[in-house]
Amino acid sequence: MEESHVKIITFKVGDTGCLGSDIKIRILTIQGKQVQLGFEAPRDIPIYRAELVLAPKKRQRQNDKLKSATSE
After folding, report:
1. Segments making up each domain of the chain, as ranges
2. Please, what is the Cα angle at 3 between 43 and 54, to 5 degrees?
3. CB 13 within 8 A of CB 27
């Protein structure tokens, strides 16, 4: 698995950032601790909240741990 890193960039409302050459992220609003983002990407690139993608993997790891604990 490839190691990842975090890039920290400061934006204001209306600013746009790019992920590669195909994906643009725009800061739409900031209200307190909530930030509303707009994504412009090709239709074949899915965009999800991380917890929706990571939750099934986490559940699978938990199930695997339970199975191994009960089979011992």
Report:
1. 16-70
2. 55
3. yes
Average pLDDT over residues 59-70: 68
Instruction: Tell me the pTM.
Output: 0.63
CA 39/CA 65 separation, integer angstroms: 37
CA distance 66 to 58: 12
Give the residue ranges of DSSP H helices in 1-72: 50-70
Structure tokens at 2: 């490839």
Contacts of 64 (CB under 8 A, 6+ apart): none
Mean pLDDT (whole number) for 42-46 = 93
